[in-house]
Design goal:
There is one protein chain. By secondary structure, the chain is α+β, with helices and mostly antiparallel strands. The protein has two domains: 218 residues, Jelly Rolls, CATH 2.60.120; 82 residues, Jelly Rolls. Helices cover 14% and strands 36% of the residues. The strands form six sheets. A six-stranded antiparallel β-sheet has the order 1-21-18-23-16-15, with no helix packed on it. A hairpin with a 4-residue loop joins strand 15 and strand 16.
Length: 327
């Protein structure tokens, strides 16, 4: 027996020029002396930002080490065959107190060629949004490479962009190659490929602490944009109480929303993947064969693939959590 159990990790807090305080005030996380906490990296093996186990006898070990040691028992046999010792996802909470830059992420082939990295398709689940908060999920009209460069050169990029008013509970899928941004006042959960490659297209002429404008990557972005993307990024779904409701199922991850107020028996025997819960509301227990683990609001927990059956038991009256795995 390998002794694996549900794993919590120490959050990796990232100060951002656009960050705020909702990761602390709403998700009950403590970023210490970070004033503008824009991101809490919940599970990561990005270089220099590798998650450290916070609970149980594996506390102090790092996730990349555990994948190498436990392999398919931790991530699932099919996942391990595909990704080897690399954990395939990056999960984070994002708090945009100010507008995040307009950006695009490369697909797998471009990222591999330019950076020896994975591409970055991602999804968002809106946790909190102030009145009239906006996000940008792509273009508002057909756009070609030439049209994009023309509008950028004339300072009219915003005229090409679609903007949605968002509310808590909205969800979006943002594939690699789609221009996008997160507007001020939005707190969201992000599930994405294990990549930190971003091409910044516009940063609203902001200056950093040294008084310098942040670097833009127009030359790289223009070749990374998928100009054929036309579908609406917003996800239409109806959450069913006490059952998992699928939000996104793509080659890189599956994400469900699970709202429950009674005990739920889970059996993942057919999935052959780790399961991650990003807990958005309420507290619940995970009961498994060898013990139990409390998951509080704002916490993220990774259940190893070898723990195929367990129970979710609500401590609060209503629980809302994201459920993430790889099909």
């Amino acid at each position: 027996m390998n002794g694996l159990y549900p794993l919590k990790f120490k959050p990796i807090f990232r100060e951002k020029i656009w960050g705020g305080n909702k990761i602390k005030s709403i998700l009950n996380k403590d970023p210490g002396n970070i004033l503008n906490c824009g991101e809490s990296w919940e599970i990561s093996t990005v270089e220099d930002f590798v998650s450290e186990v916070a609970n149980g006898f594996l506390a102090g070990n790092y996730l990349n080490e555990l994948v190498e040691i436990y392999m398919g028992d931790l991530v699932g046999e099919k996942v391990y065959q595909k990704y080897g010792n690399e954990f395939p996802l990056l999960l984070k909470f994002i708090d945009a107190a100010r507008d995040v830059s307009i950006q695009v992420h490369p697909n797998d082939s471009i990222a591999k060629e330019r950076h020896n990295a994975y591409g970055k398709s991602e999804m968002w689940y809106i946790i909190n949004a102030e009145n009239k908060s906006l996000i940008n999920p792509g273009f508002n009209q057909p756009v070609t490479r030439e049209k994009f460069l023309d509008f950028v050169s004339k300072g009219k990029l915003m005229d090409l962009l679609k903007f949605d008013n968002v509310s808590p509970g909205d969800a979006y899928f943002v594939p690699a190659g789609q221009v996008h941004s997160i507007g001020k006042g939005v707190l969201l959960a992000e599930i994405q490929q294990i990549s930190d490659v971003t091409y910044r297209i516009s940063d609203f002429d902001r200056k950093n602490a040294e008084g310098n404008k942040r670097e833009l990557h127009i030359d790289w972005a223009v070749d990374a944009i998928n100009y054929d993307l036309r579908e609406d990024s917003k996800i239409n779904f109806n959450a069913e109480k006490n059952n998992s409701t699928e939000l996104v199922c793509c080659n890189y991850f599956t994400t469900n929303i699970l709202e429950f107020n009674k005990k739920i028996d889970k059996d993942y025997n057919q999935i052959d993947s780790f399961i991650i819960y990003m807990n958005l509301e309420g507290d619940f227990l995970i009961n498994y064969e060898k013990g139990s683990e409390l998951v509080k609001k704002g916490e993220t927990i990774l259940i190893p693939a070898c723990l195929e059956t367990f129970q979710l038991i609500p401590i609060s009256s209503e629980i809302k959590t994201l459920e993430v795995y790889i099909k």
